[in-house]
Write a structure and sequence with these properties.
Elements lengths: L2 E3 L6 E7 L16 H16 L3 E7 L3 H8 L4 E4 L7 H4 L7 E4 L9 H7 L2 E3 L6 H16 L2 H11 L1 H6 L11 E5 L3 H12 L3 E5 L5 H6 L3 E2 L2 H7 L2 E4 L13 H6 L5 E4 L8 H10 L4 E4 L19 E3 L8 H19 L13 H5 L15
Parallel strand pairs: 1-4, 4-5, 5-6, 7-8, 7-10, 8-9, 10-11, 11-12, 12-13
Antiparallel strand pairs: 2-3
Helix pairs in contact: 1-13, 5-8
């Protein structure tokens, strides 16, 4: 059996080969991959997979067709989720039993196609919560306190030039933060904002009211949130309903002094509309870790605006999440290939198990530690 695994920052895919009779030779391709990255990750993964007679293959994939060419006969794929795996690719995966996305969002995987093919889809819903909330709060502070532009001016042009960019910014303790999406990350963001004395309101039609109450967050409708918030932090999944939910109409409802923070998905925001809003002063600024197109174009106007702080989709990274990347995806693969379901919170298309359509593996090497 073969399993793919991608390291997010390197867009690398590891394939794992598993047989009942013998262990197949490993193939580890490190094209354009820093050796240290593979050295850090591969030993743990190989050790865990060896317990079920599996072996790892590392392949760098830049396009969906690379995915197909490398993993047509793979039994599992561990994928960073930055590249699309569409239906046409999934329908040609001959042996795949599970695709693990090593992040919260799985919008780049055609889940319906996987379900039809009996392929389990799993994700890491609990691996990034604090890091992403930290990044969102950091972006909020950086925009509000003019940290990035002040630092840049001080280094390049001196003290007076740096002081010249400072404005009278809103005091956080007198500000309202509106959170769109009160899941794990949204609630973690609320906790951080409340520590700064901010009033927190939120919109999430999928969360029960008692969760708002336990988080000490006022539940409001979307339009009210847009009109009342001094800062808006986006934390919804990307779905058909949330695609471009921050569009021109939404941006025009926001306060002129409002700041938009996005650490969710780039396409939750209509990027051309956001650029227009910032250029024409509908809102005061933005802090962005995600873009509609990634990597973003070098000539993207957002990269040249003094009132915008940007980072390259790094919100989830830390020493702790690096460990999560090693442990949890391999655990999900081992579970499925030894006839068990993924953890409930990570099982995206869990209806598969109820239908008993997932092939199980009859192997004598069962892992007791996954």
């Amino acid at each position: 059996m073969m399993i793919w695994h991608s390291v997010p920052c390197c867009r690398m895919i590891h394939t794992i080969t598993l047989t009942e009779e013998k262990l197949m030779a490993a193939i580890c391709l490190r094209t354009s991959i820093h050796p240290r990255v593979a050295d850090i990750i591969l030993p743990y993964e190989r050790a865990e997979l060896a317990k079920i007679g599996a072996e790892l293959r590392v392949v760098e994939c830049k396009t969906p067709d690379d995915v197909l060419n490398a993993g047509r006969d793979a039994d599992a794929i561990i994928h960073p989720g930055y590249m699309e795996i569409p239906r046409r690719i999934i329908e040609q995966l001959e042996k795949c039993k599970i695709i693990v996305v090593t992040k919260v969002g799985f919008d780049n995987i055609d889940v319906d196609a996987c379900t039809e093919r009996g392929i389990v889809v799993a994700n890491l819903p609990d691996g990034w919560t604090n890091e992403v909330a930290d990044q969102a709060m950091g972006l909020l502070l950086a925009v509000n306190r003019r940290i990035a532009i002040a630092s840049s001016k001080l280094k390049s042009e001196g003290w007076k030039a740096s002081m010249a960019v400072m404005t009278v910014m809103p005091a956080l303790r007198q500000s309202v933060l509106g959170i769109v999406g009160l899941g794990r990350i949204g609630r973690a963001m609320a906790t951080r904002a409340q520590a700064f004395g901010m009033t927190v309101i939120a919109y999430d039609p999928l969360i029960e009211h008692d969760i708002f109450e336990r988080a000490n967050v006022e539940q409001v409708e979307f339009e009210e949130l847009l009109k009342r918030s001094d800062f808006i932090s986006l934390h919804p999944p990307l779905t058909g309903k949330t695609y471009h939910m921050i569009n021109e109409a939404a941006l025009r409802m926001m306060k002129a002094n409002a700041v938009l923070i996005n650490t969710a998905r780039g396409s939750v925001v209509d990027e051309p509309a956001l650029i227009k809003a910032l250029q024409q002063g509908w809102i005061a600024g933005a802090g962005l870790d995600v873009f509609e197109k990634e990597p973003c174009d070098p000539d993207n106007p957002l990269l040249t605006m003094d009132n915008v702080v940007v980072t390259p989709h790094i919100a989830g990274f830390s020493m702790a999440t690096a460990e999560e990347h090693r442990v949890k995806p391999i655990g999900e693969v081992v579970r499925v290939l030894t006839g068990r379901p993924p953890r409930p919170e990570a099982f995206v298309n869990r209806e598969l198990w109820a239908r008993a359509t997932v092939p199980t593996l009859n192997t004598s090497k069962q892992s007791q530690t996954a």
